[in-house]
What we know:
The structure is a homodimer of 409-residue chains.
Chain A: E1 2-7, H1 11-22, H2 24-31, E2 35-41, E3 55-56, H3 59-63, E4 68-73, H4 81-90, E5 94-97, H5 100-116, E6 121-122, H6 134-140, E7 146-152, H7 155-167, H8 171-180, H9 189-192, H10 195-209, E8 219-220, H11 228-236, E9 239-251, E10 254-265, E11 277-284, E12 288-295, H12 299-315, E13 339-347, H13 354-365, E14 378-382, E15 386-387, H14 388-397, E16 401-407
Parallel strand pairs in A: 1-2, 1-4, 2-3, 4-5, 5-6, 8-10, 10-16
Antiparallel strand pairs in A: 7-9, 7-11, 9-10, 11-12, 13-14, 13-15, 13-16
Helix pairs in contact in A: 1-12, 2-12, 4-5, 5-10, 7-8
Amino acid sequence: MINIxxxxxxTIGSGVVEVLNTNGDSIKKRAGDKIAVKYxxxxxxxxxDPVMDILVHxxxxxxxxxEVKIVVxxxxxxEPAYTFVKKALLMGKxxxxxxxxxxxxxGATLIDMAKERDLNFLFEASxxxxxPIIRPLNQSLTADEIVEITGILNGTTKYILSKMSxxxxxxxxxxxxxxxxxxxxxxxxxxxxxxxxxxKIAILSSLAFGMQVDFEDIYTEGISKISDKDIKYAKxxxxxxxxxxxxxxxxxxxxxxxxxxxxxxxxHPLYSVNDVFNGIFVRGNVIGDxxxxxxxxxxxxxxxxxxxxxxxxAKHLGKNIWTIWSSRKLExxxxxxxxxRFFVRASxxxxxxxxxxxxKARELFGDIEPxxxxxxxxxxxxxxxxxxxxxxxxxxxxxxLLNVIxxxx
Amino acid sequence: MINIxxxxxxTIGSGVVEVLNTNGDSIKKRAGDKIAVKYxxxxxxxxxDPVMDILVHxxxxxxxxxEVKIVVxxxxxxEPAYTFVKKALLMGKxxxxxxxxxxxxxGATLIDMAKERDLNFLFEASxxxxxPIIRPLNQSLTADEIVEITGILNGTTKYILSKMSxxxxxxxxxxxxxxxxxxxxxxxxxxxxxxxxxxKIAILSSLAFGMQVDFEDIYTEGISKISDKDIKYAKxxxxxxxxxxxxxxxxxxxxxxxxxxxxxxxxHPLYSVNDVFNGIFVRGNVIGDxxxxxxxxxxxxxxxxxxxxxxxxAKHLGKNIWTIWSSRKLExxxxxxxxxRFFVRASxxxxxxxxxxxxKARELFGDIEPxxxxxxxxxxxxxxxxxxxxxxxxxxxxxxLLNVIxxxx
Lengths: 409, 409
């Protein structure tokens, strides 16, 4: 029997207990031993729930119990999670977490601490809910140099963009709809401003490139500027707008990462990632393109990933599973130097006709052609490849500019 | 430095050497040590190829060299591969293989032999080319009871069915096209009759259910009966025909497996698996639906999977990586008892009109409705759920029957 403790009895914590109960027999077969939850830590009480028999309010009971071999941190947030996890490792316990803030901020340190002590620090559930992606990056794609990882990693923004696209809602209406469905937090800024996706791509990039990618260095843009008019134009050219979290190695000197809405067409593998699924696309220099799809961050899919980590830690008591994520910092390339094509939408105003506007736009962007007009009083076009830096400068000089969205086709 | 030997210098074997050369540095970082190819075994000579320096014709040189820690078997076929692999394990060497015939036939035995000797027998490349699926099943989906695995696992049949659908070719023309493109073997029966897919789903099923699934027990039907007329009808209802290799656990008493063409619609996750990609869909009782897509069985993708196994074996010298595939046989349910819906196509003949035919068909299948006619002199319909056994009997009694295809929508 291998004793574990679960820190936090919220959605994921209760899911972990449920999965261990539901699939106890097959998990025992796979782990080689029975996994027993000895303690659950929470500040709350849960009257009537059988968890009361093992509920504790003091983390030291868990940390000081030598019988507890694996600690499962599913509280979220950096503190007190970081303090608890560090102490658990110092006390010789392996740690599993689903906490993307913790992993993005302190992953390299905690991996090193685990390695030095022949313990494990595992975090499959921190990115992509149930989708196996951390372990495949660590253990399956090891023959490759990863040249790109791109994910649709945030459920709230995916829901809002789908709603806007399917029902023609504007951003505010779609956000309110997401709130009423319970898909958006009361303060949804971490999701819609891209910070959630940013932490997740920081984790994936650190694993892919084997060095610390600081999430603060990643250019991050949310979806709040996307309007129903952008969606109309996208539809008119067979494109969709998705919030991409992406990290690309153009060469040894240029690795860049960004979170931003992009327009893609049906030939992009992530085009058909729909409501229910998250998707992560990986390109390696020998394997070519691989994709991982799966049910996103629901309670049970996420708990499934946590429990898979528990099984792995149970099979590897006393032996560290190698993770290639050193604390050496990867200096990301200046995003200003990266080239993209851009969708540009602007108003026909100032008493001038479309031709006069196009002439001005062509002075900035060369020989662009307007898209078929789908919004009265506006025009739109797609630029050739332009450096981000130059685009910034051209945006300043562009009259009647309404929005700009990166294009990947 | 960890010395390995490669048995067979064909497409995959030369790909393995190429990947180890191309990505040597990053592979060294991930394996923790340099991987060196000490020998390549082949009966042929390769004048001018640097492989000549390490080429041997006698497998005993490899087997008897204690410096060789890992043997990579990429010859294909059951013999002499099986003999060589067994001897390598007996001599204390871990073995990596891409050989689906070998794994389907002797996987459980070889896994046991490796386990008893603290060695590893790994076979990621035997299914799905570069797609990581064996390791995810073994190590990532361990919290789940797997209830379904369905894959599109054979490139030749995927190409032929796509060709028929995109260009309206009949089966023979599409097969000849596949031959001329080098996608079909001179004797393509292993592919088009479903035997290749059958071995692959036997491997995946054994891993998913943890018991030996004999490929000889799997109901297997190929694509040679699919006509351009079936494709026309499929298109007319927004469906596609794919060769599915599938294994489903309906409950503890009923696990069945089959390889057969099926009609699916856009709501099926494997609908959009296109020319370049293979796809494997897995449903777990807690994780929900997960999918793995990737470049199929090309030289470098497959070599990438082989090399990832080499890295894993190198990291686990002296320690067996647990594989849940016991030699205990899983008795598959009798396919006769499984229910499906069927697409049925028949000719309007015998001097009777459509109504008379439909009346007869309704006597057999209940209140079926004909699909809109897209082939002169024929009619088609989709049955309600029927047991396979009953369908067999009804097929005998059905007048003018032309073809029957299982339906999954």
